[in-house]
Amino acid sequence: MAKEKAQARREHLDRMRAEQRRKQRRAALLMWGTGGLIVVVLVGVVGFYLVKQARETSLDAVTSAKYEGGQHVWAKVAYKETPPVGGQHHNNWQQCAIYDKPIHSEHAVHSLEHGAIWITYRPDLPKAQLDALTEVASSTGQQDYMLMSPFPNLPSPIVVSSWGHQLKLTDAGDPKLGAFIKKYQNGPDTPELGATCGGEAAVTTTADQAPLPPEPTGQQQSPMETTSPTPGESQQ
């Protein structure tokens, strides 16, 4: 009788141990399964974010044109693009800054030749959009190589240009704007990389304030092309 009771106890203990092991296996499987699911979800979220970010900052819509630098003139120029991205331009360049009135394209193109980005927008752009655009222009890239001005009859509410490259946008908050600035400001296609967008020869007036400067006569001299030691450092 005692042997039977002892045997029964052993069998009961064995069953309890077996059940405990099954519970531990189920807990382990559940833990690893949940952990694996979390990893899969995280990988999926990160992958989705990267794909979304790449799509939002894609510059596939950028149009490009090939222009030779150094085509300095004193007359008004009829440009192919609106706004222009290269070609002939005035001997004087535009002081890189944010303007609230249109500037002469001939001056702006000269600034593009020096590595500037030119952000243009329709004069009737809503104030909220204009404020957002101004924030981007004043906080992205190198400020001494940044131009911004209204431009009548644009093909899009906002157009951002560099020498030979242009992107049309409808929203000032579009991440493509910042991506364009970072890629093309003082980019490899800049004909006169390192030339300043400031200095004594830079024009600081808007188109309604002064006409294009005429060709010098007599002892007057053409503006000298000056360079900056390091693009992006402010000129004194």
What is the straight-line distance between the termini?
A: 107 Å
% residues in beta strands:
5-15%
Q: Supply the number of helical segments.
A: 4
- The amount of helix comes to 25-40%
Element-level helix/strand string: HEEEHEHEEEH
- Give the overall shape, derived from the CA principal axes: rod-shaped
Account of the protein in words:
The protein has 236 residues and is of the alpha/beta class. It contains four helices and seven strands, in the order H-E-E-E-H-E-H-E-E-E-H. The longest helix has 55 residues, at 2-56.
Features:
rod-shaped, two-stranded parallel sheet, single chain, disordered C terminus, 236 residues, alpha/beta
In short:
This protein is α/β, with parallel strands linked by helices.
List the helices and strands and how they pair.
Layout: H1 2-56, E1 63-64, E2 72-73, E3 89-90, H2 105-113, E4 117-121, H3 127-139, E5 146-150, E6 158-162, E7 165-169, H4 175-184
Parallel strand pairs: 2-3, 4-5
Antiparallel strand pairs: 1-7, 4-6, 6-7
